[in-house]
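Subject: two folds for Thursday's group meeting

Dear M.,

Sorry for the delay on this. The cluster queue was jammed most of the week, so I only got both jobs back this morning. I'm pasting them in the order they finished. Each block is the input sequence followed by the predicted C-alpha cells. Could you check whether the formatting survives your parser before we put anything on slides? The first protein is the one we discussed after the seminar.
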Amino acid sequence: MCAESHLARRLGLFDATMIVMGGIIGAGIFTNPYVVAQQVHTPLLILGAWTVGGLIALAGAFIYAELSSQVTESGGQYVYLREAMHPLVGFVYGWSLLFVIQTGGMAAVALIFANHFFELMGIATSEFNAALLGSAALAVLTAINCVGVRAGTATQNLFMILKLVAIAALVIFGLTVRHPTNAAPAQFVAATTTWQMLIAFGAALIPAQFAYGGWQTACFVAGEVREPRKTLPRGLLLGVLGVIVVYLSVNYVCLHVLGADGLAHTKTPASAIMRLALGEKGGRLIAAGIAISTIGFLSQSMLTAPRVYFAMADDGLFFKQLALLNRARVPAFAIGLQGALAIVIALVASKFEQILNYVVSVDVVFFALSAACVFLFRKQRAAASDAFRIPAHPFTTLFFIAACAVITFSLLYKFPLNSAISLGIMLLGVPAYFIWALRVRTGSGSDRI
C-alpha cells in the first residue's frame, strides 16, 4: 500500500511557504550568530558567511524544487535517493535521519530552549543543567505528540508569524541602540594565511548551514500539497528568499549592537540586544519568545521525519512499528524512539557546538547526494511538462555540491572526532540495509524489533 494514500492534498502556496520558513526559522538564528563570530572575527566575514550560506540554501531550494516537481510522493530525500540511485542509498539516509540528523537537530534546539529559559528566569546555569532541562522538554513534547495532541496547519502558521514578529522586534529595537557595547576583547588568533582564512570561513559556514537547514523537510509532505509540481517549488523559493532577508537583518543588528568581539562572547545575543534596548524586561521578553519558538519548532519537527520512516517501512526496509499509527492516528513508536534518541544525544554531548558539528557533517553528505539526483533523473526519465527546471543548471547544482564538499572538509579538518562519530553511525546503515534486504528476500519480514 502506498504511503501517499494516507495523505490528503490540502496545502496551498501560503501553507507551503510557511512550512518552508517554519522548517528553517527555529532557534538557530537566535544562537548561531555567536558561533559564526567565533570562527571569523570581522563584520565583513561574518555577514559574508551568512550571505554565502543563504546562497547555498537558495541553490538547494532550486534543486529540491526540481526534485519535488519530478517526484510528488511523500518521503522527500529518501524517495529521491531510492529512485535515482539505489534503495541502499535511500535506506542509509533514513537511518542517518533517525540516528543523527533529526534527533541531533532536536537535541540542539532543545539546548537552545534550555539556555533561553534559564535566561528568562535570570538563573546562571551550566551546560549539563541545560542538557537536563532540554531533555525534560523533549520528553514532555514526545509524550504529548504520542497521545495525539498535534497542532494543525493554522496553528503552525501562527507560530511562524509570531516568530517573525519577535525577529522584527529584535531588528527594530536593536537599531535604536546606537553604539556597540564595550565588550572584552576576544582572545582569538587571527588567520595569517589565505589557507587559514579559507578554513575559518568554511568552519563559519557550518553553523550558518545548520541555521538555514530545514527547507528540505517541506518535501516530506509533498503528498499533502495541492498541485505539488507548481506549489511546492514556489513555496521553497519564496520561503528561502524570505529567510535570507530575515537572517541578514538579524546578523546586521547583532553586529551593530554587540560588535564582532562582543557577539563572539554572547551565547544569547538576541536577549543581550533587547536588554540593551529595553532593559531587563526586554531581555526577558525576547527570551520568552525564543523559548516558545523552540517549543513550537520541536513539536512540529517531531512529526515530519516519521513520513520518511513510513516510506521505508512501506518498502519493507525498516521497523514496521515506526510507521504504525496508534488510536490517535499518530506514529507513536516513531515519535517515541526519535525523542529517546534526541535525549541521549543531548545528555551525552551536552554542548550545542558539538551537536551542531555532529548533525551537519552527515546532513551535507546527503544534500550533495540529493543534488546529484538531478543529473540522474534528467538522464533516466522524461520531465513532466509542468516540472520545475533549475535556473543555470548545471552551474547552480555544481555550486551546491561543491559547497557541501567544502563544509564536509572543514568539519573533518576542524572537528574530526564529532565528524567521525556521526559518519561512523551513518556507515553502520550499510550492513543494516543488507540485513533488512535479506529478511525481505527470505520472507521473514520486518515487523518485529
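Second protein, same layout:
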Amino acid sequence: MRRVSAICAAAGIAISALAVAPAQAGYYVIRWENTGICQIWNEDLKYKPVEWPSHYKVVSKPVPTLSAAMAVQATMRQQRHCTL
C-alpha cells in the first residue's frame, strides 16, 4: 500500500511540474523623448534602459514574440508616431 501511495504522490508532483510552464518573456516598444526613436525592449532583461540624457515612455502593450513587437514598431512608424 505504501508503494502505491508513493507512486501516486510522485506522479502527482510530476504532472503538476509539467502543468506549470514558465512564463515567456514579453516584448514591448518604448519611445525616447528627445529623438522620437522607438525601440523594442525585452521584459526578460534584468535592468531597465538607462534614462540619461533622455527619458523613455512605454508606447505599446507587451506582446509575446519579437516578430509581433517588430510589427507593432513598423505600424507606429507608418503612423508617424516614431521617427525610426
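Two things I noticed about the second structure. Residues 16-22 have pLDDT under 50 and may be disordered. Residues 2-19 form the longest helix (18 residues).

Cheers,
T.
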